[in-house]
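Researcher: Re-running this chain for the archive, since the previous output was lost when a drive failed. Same request as before.
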Amino acid sequence: MAVPAGTGRSKAASQIRTIAKERFRVDLPTYHADCDANYLRLCKLMPELASNQSWRYQMPDGTLEVAVLERSRYTTEVSLQSSAPESGSKDKNWLAPPPITVRLYHDARMAEVVAVDGQGPIGGDGLNFSYPNPAMHSEDERQQVNRFLSEWLAHCLANGRAEVDFTLGGRRI
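Model: Regenerated structure tokens:
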């Protein structure tokens, strides 16, 4: 069907094509807010970070294990892994989040997800992004996984109970 000149339809179609080709832009203030919140939540979940190597929390449907992978002067890399309870673990394991590796930047007081399920870096190099790509990664994947971590950590703080070992009279309780 031919479009008569002056109807504005062809101009609207070209504007839609232009809008669809706009480059993705990161919402930096929101991304930094998520990373700041993740740092604070992780610090609450990992008391005495300088001296401890791992933490374990009982969750309503399993456990959360946090372990230090690497330490340096300004950063610490930790792994968060959730597992289902021992009884019926195969039935509920599909609900457990994948293992997440997080890097804490102590000078900036930020925490950022660097790998999910052992695969990273999240979001590629951020420069040469094309969609669709072989791994089918989304443009805002880095922001999505950091937002997921933020919500997951909030859930862990609200519902988790720390496992603590006590020694009384030489006996471990």
